[in-house]
Amino acid sequence: MRKLMKKIVVTSVLCCACSPFFLATAHAERLKDIAGIQGVRQNQLMGYGLVVGLDGSGDQTTQTPFTVQSIISMMQQMGVSIPVGTSLQLKNVAAVMVTTSLPPFSQPGQTLDVTVSSMGNAKSLRGGTLLMTPLKGADNQIYAMAQGNLLVGGVGASANGSKAQINHLSVGKISGGATVERAVPSPLGQGNTIQLELNTADFSTASKVVEAINKKFGADTAAAVDGRVIQVKAPMVNDQRVAFLGALESLDVSPAQNAAKVILNARTGSIVMNQAVSLDTCAVAHGNLSVVINTENTVSQPNALSDGQTTTTGNSNVSITKEGGQLLMLKAGASLADVVKALNSIGATPQDLLAILQAMKASGALRADLEII
């Protein structure tokens, strides 16, 4: 049954890979989907706090001394003095870490969603309340304050010594639980220029972006700095610059075709290819597997009086055998999808596929990036 499941996974992936959509040329995409503006980014925030009001599911204070220390420090700040040596046996308090992201252009007074995660051995945060927690950035400055009631999506139950739990009970969220206290400057370039940064560095795509911008807004508006950064001239006035950036982000660009990549999951045998990958002539000996792929070119020539054109198509003939001591012979032009499909049809394991693809890559016959996950 396990081998059958592996076969289904690999075959379904390859059917998608061989579909016309897989072989289609790159289509136009919005510039905002393939590039961002330099300086416009999120900033991670983090804080340490306490969750109170738990129904006996908090930290075991004997095993989490930092929870007790935090409670004593908080009580002292509120004017309550706890005698030295007092043993606090609390079950309704948990030490937590609070995390969130500060979006660009956030202003004081705006609210953010926060994630609250237990640090100690609390069994559940359900029903708890997060006390006021400062959220700091990488510069150790406070940018937001968090507080509120937790919403925990998990469910836990126990009866007659047996336990059942769905999802994590030690992580919760507070919608709008943090209030921004300080804005982070997000400069939109300096002077009369801004910098666009492609999500993936590619010289061909950078050239196409420059061409599309200059065609839309006039010559010499954009110039590529390298394979990722593009310098664009923009208006000086903020209102005009915002309108210009809105039109710029909505510009349609046809990105260059991505580099060939093959991703293999060594545990399940799933294989994903981002484009059609061809193989050069090679010979791989692996156990008792033997697959021969031949590519035959068929010429279609129209009648002498017709207006048609002569076309040439390639057909891959795959013959499969499973005998000891034979070689896996692959002719130039064979598709990797056909090779993997053939190996899968005779029951090749994920380890077999991994060994064969790695050998092809090492010999230079596989002209693609091979990534093993």
From TrEMBL:
One family name in Pfam for this protein: FlgI
GO molecular function list: structural molecule activity
Biological-process GO terms, alphabetical: bacterial-type flagellum-dependent cell motility
Signal peptide: 1-28
Chief place where the protein resides: other
Keyword terms of this UniProt record: Bacterial flagellum, Cell projection, Cilium, Flagellum, Signal
Function text: Assembles around the rod to form the L-ring and probably protects the motor/basal body from shearing forces during rotation.
PANTHER family linked: FLAGELLAR P-RING PERIPLASMIC PROTEIN FLGI (PTHR30381), FLAGELLAR P-RING PROTEIN (PTHR30381:SF0)
Family the entry assigns: Belongs to the FlgI family.
Name listed for the protein in its UniProt record: Flagellar P-ring protein
Gene from which this protein is expressed: flgI
